[in-house]
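CORE FACILITY INTAKE
Project code: CF-77B
Contact: R.S. (postdoc)
Sample description: multi-component assembly, two entities in total
Requested service: structural model of the whole complex
Turnaround: standard
Below are the sequence entries exactly as provided by the requester. Do not edit them.
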Amino acid sequence: MYAWIWHKLPFGLPGKVVGSVLLAAAAAAILWFWVFPAIEPVLPFDDVQVGTP
Amino acid sequence: MTPSEQGHARPPEDPADDDTVLLDRVRSTPATDDTVLLDRVRSTPATDDTAIIVAGAMAAGATPPDRLTTGDADTTVLRPVSPTAADGGPRRHRRLWPYGPQTRTVVRTAGELMITFGLILLLFAAYELWGKAAIVADHQNALDAQLDQEWAQPTVAPSPGATPAPSQPAAPPLVLPGDAIGRLYLPRLGSMWVVVEGVEPADIEYAPGHYPGTAMPGQSGNFAVAGHRSPAIFWDLDRVQGEDVVIVETQTTWFIYKVTQLRIVPPSAVEVVGPVPPGEAPGGTYLTLTTCNPKWDNYERLIVHARLDRSQDRSAGRPAELGGL
């Protein structure tokens, strides 16, 4: 997978390095701003009330 | 064996990532190794056909035996020889990776996906720690400003002339879930939060929430508040100690409570938010904070009980117990 992406990235070694960093940053941003806020309320470690379990 | 012959059995030093290295490793296992077998054959007297083949291969490779210790020379010489000399030589290579290249790709991709999943989990932990803290801080600032604005305009809120109705204890009933109802200060932790009404997940996402139906601040009974065990809210609630002050600010009054108990209870212990917390005298004015325990999990609840110590009018300024807050 990663080897395939690396192979597909253009513009020689500098282009591959810059492209990899951009891809990783984009993936992290998507997770941080959209995916995590969406899944976070579903996860169990946030129940704080007593009573209704 | 002479030292030069033992050299064949040594693993190659060239770590090139291809099948050659794997083949050489197979050969370099002791005793069952093809190479060793070949060497043993060669060291028998020269009447053996195999020995002649080996010698011929050596000559064809034009490499003296001493130089054969490096990986490339080893394979170029041995490859043509091993199928003829050793039974099951090529089969042994197939046994090391007996599947096709597609399987290899599948296995490698699965490994990469697992590593990726681990990295995502680490990122999620970072989000829970720092990302949520920033989001909660933003919302707290907004709620704080909203509270200031509401309190600044005296509308239907209890004014001196309108409140003398002690028969109705729930005088301000028009509090909707999610509305900001006051500020909660914990000088020990150096923290202040705006408290909202309601303990549903949507209510307490960014602020501690007041259990509906429990007393309001300063009322006889138990002002119970639930908050997430997240770094921006009740993360360090376990650092609270007995006699610490907990201060609640409403539109008209500061209420100064003193901590009486810190408890860890099962999630079913609804009595801790009852009008009289367990172990307290009836008829008092109490405050209870609840959050989950331990951190990152939810199988227990951390409870802080406090009893009203005194109150002071908001017009009299900030209470001294606030310290630098």
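Facility notes:
- DSSP finds two helices and no strands in chain A.
- The mean pLDDT of chain A is 83.
Invoice: internal transfer
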